[in-house]
């Protein structure tokens, strides 16, 4: 019985070792042996200072952000309470007073 992990991209059981890498012959995905993550790992989202963000945190905007499709601007120092973390490029879902529902990138905020 093989002790090799399943492919992290397609979950195929037919993986093999190539030096210090694992390779999946079905989808062609390659990953380092130290990159194998357990199924319960969730992505860690960090703010601009490297602090880990969690659901319900309060954050502050560190850069003027133009709101796409309108003339509104979210100003530096705007506090946002009770954030939700989501998957994707814009990984923070929140409501900003005076603007409404927004998605923000974690690189433009800091934890309070």
The 3D shape can be described as: elongated
SSE arrangement, N to C: EEEEEEEEEEE
Biggest sheet strand order reads 1-2-3
Main sheet specs: 3 strands, antiparallel
* Average pLDDT over all residues: 88
Report strand %: 25-35%
Instruction: Please report the number of helical segments.
Output: 0
GO molecular function, one term: phosphonoacetate hydrolase activity
Protein name: Phosphonoacetate hydrolase
Keywords: Hydrolase
Family: Belongs to the YjdM family.
Describe the 3D structure.
The protein has 112 residues and is mainly beta. Helix content is 0%, strand content 29%. The protein has no helices and eleven strands. It has strands spanning 16-18, 21-23, 30-32, 59-61, 65-66, 73-74, 79-80, 84-85, 92-96, 100-104, 109-111. The N and C termini lie far apart (50 Å). The model has no long low-confidence stretch (mean pLDDT 88). Its EC number is 3.11.1.2. It comes from Paraglaciecola agarilytica NO2. Keywords: Hydrolase. GO terms for molecular function: phosphonoacetate hydrolase activity.
Task: Supply database-style keywords.
three-stranded antiparallel β-sheet, 112 residues, 29% strand
Topology summary:
Layout: E1 16-18, E2 21-23, E3 30-32, E4 59-61, E5 65-66, E6 73-74, E7 79-80, E8 84-85, E9 92-96, E10 100-104, E11 109-111
Antiparallel strand pairs: 1-2, 2-3, 4-7, 4-11, 5-6, 8-9, 9-10
EC number: 3.11.1.2
GO molecular function: phosphonoacetate hydrolase activity
Pfam family, one: Zn_Ribbon_YjdM
């Amino acid at each position: 019985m093989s002790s090799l992990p399943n492919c992290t991209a397609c979950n195929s059981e037919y993986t093999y070792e190539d030096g210090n890498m694992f390779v999946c012959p079905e989808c062609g995905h390659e990953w380092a042996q130290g990159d194998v993550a357990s199924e319960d790992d969730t992505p860690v989202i960090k703010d601009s200072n490297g602090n880990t963000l969690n659901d319900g945190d309060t954050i502050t905007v560190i850069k003027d952000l133009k709101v796409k499709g309108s003339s509104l601007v979210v100003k530096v120092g705007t506090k946002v309470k009770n954030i939700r973390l989501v998957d994707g490029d814009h990984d923070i879902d929140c409501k900003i007073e005076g603007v409404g529902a927004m998605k923000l990138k974690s690189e433009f905020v800091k934890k309070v």
